[in-house]
Write a structure and sequence with these properties.
This protein has helices spanning 16-30, 35-45, 59-66, 69-80, 108-115, 122-130, 133-136, 138-146, and strands spanning 5-11, 93-94, 102-105, 153-160, 163-172. It has a 5-stranded mixed β-sheet, covered by helices on one side. The protein has one domain. The chain starts with a strand and ends with a strand. It is α/β, with parallel strands linked by helices. It contains 8 helices and 5 strands; from the N terminus they run βααααββααααββ.
Amino acid sequence: MGGNPWHYFTPYQRDINEALQNLREQEFRMGRYGFDYWFNQMSTNMQIGVTLNQSNRPANELIEQYGSVHEAIEALLDQSMPDGTQSILDMTHVSNQPEDFAVCPLSEHEIREILQTTQPTRELIESLLLGEEAIDNWQPFEMFWDSIDRGTGRYIVLYQEGEPTEIFFAGYSFD
């Protein structure tokens, strides 16, 4: 198999690690992780009439069993290896450079080279890295996604009218 891509937008916070941890908790509580969830999302997007049964236990059961959200997520990560959770839950921290289980920023140079700006917007990310325009204008798409290894993630601070408004997290599952 290969690593599966994932991406998220979350409100901007100056502390990127805090934003990451808040997003991880949100996705955990909503049950948006695991291969079944990923496959069901992909089959819906591609209009395939097949779904898998969600095999994940509800978050509240895991929290009760392990005593805290943090411990429940850690246990879930241990149980899901070597493939990972196919989600942001696999990213445990922020790093200055690519490493397993971490998100790291794109450098200003990379942002300028890939997106042709130093203050990208959500609309730009959606069109060049996620949307149908990426098919016609494949170079930014390819440059960005090729900068990410399996089991790692990247992030970009997004702007609106010169002010940071969101953080875009993207990465690949381990397998």
